[in-house]
Amino acid sequence: GNDSPSFCGAGRGSGGKAASSPAENYHLARRRTLQVVVSALLTECGFESAEKAAVETLTEMMQSYITEIGRCAKSYCEHTARSIPTLSDTVVTLIEMGFNVDTLPVYAKRSQRMVITAPPVTNPPVTPKALSAGQKRTHPSHIPSHFPEFPDPHTYIKTPTFREPVSDYQVVREKAATQRRDVERALTRFMAKTGETQSLFKDDITAFPLIAARPSTIPYLSALLPSELELQTLEETDSSEQDDQTDSENTTGNIITDDPGADKENSMLPPSGVVPSTKASEDNVIDNPYLRPVKKPKVRRKK
């Protein structure tokens, strides 16, 4: 309105806190420039004062209009396989938006226009690099300068990512105990989820589940059966004994004696030259200590 207080060029956050990041400062500087332009246009049109809300609304409208011009010009530019918009793209955009391009030179040469001083140059915000390692390489003399630059050094520089193993006794013991506790907890939870469980509380079955004990029909059987380690040692000893027996049999079968009756015995040997033995069938039998014949202990009689 004409009777409102005089307009000012304050931005949205003029009365609030100052911007902290460089990007916010960059956007606020552009916003203030648009507000100065809107205020100058209001002065040219004969307004002596304006409300702050009206200035903000006109600034938002101008910003949206300029943004739409840039977006449409960029679309026309990319449609013709170019990356930078030209004057023809901007003219086509203005015509598409319903603006009379012929009136633009006359409006630019008007006599009552106000000249606004150029705003201070603000550098655009620089995006910090995530990784920085080594020094960036430049092109050698045999590579033209218009070729792309080398990538950042962190993409091809080898950096070690391992640490020396900890050899302290206390740390190793604590780590081993922690791993063992974690394994026991994981195994207990797995067995509780996959098997039958018992609960300490009747009201809440899911709280503190306990692995249900499975009663065995023959409780003393586990004490009688040998452990896996004992079975493994028994198998190793049996296999070593069988190898020794076969080696001894092969050596005795291949010995040539000077006895005149040896030719007769050798003529009865099979082609392989090995004497057949009855132990071949015994090798296939599993040597189970509980299947062996019972040996009675010797009882000494008292005199």
UniProtKB/TrEMBL annotation:
Residues 26-103 form the Bromodomain associated domain. Residues 293-303 have a biased composition (Basic residues). GO terms for molecular function: protein heterodimerization activity. Residues 235-247 have a biased composition (Acidic residues). GO terms for biological process: cell differentiation; transcription initiation at RNA polymerase II promoter. Residues 1-22, 119-150, 235-303 are annotated as: Disordered. Its main location: cytoplasm. Keywords: Cytoplasm, Developmental protein, Differentiation, Nucleus, Transcription, Transcription regulation. It comes from the Eukaryota. It is found in: Cytoplasm; Nucleus. GO terms for cellular component: cytoplasm; transcription factor TFIID complex. The keyword Transcription applies. InterPro entries: BTP (IPR006565), Histone-fold (IPR009072), TAF8 (IPR037818), TFIID_su8_C (IPR019473). Belongs to the TAF8 family. This is Transcription initiation factor TFIID subunit 8. It comes from Seriola lalandi dorsalis.
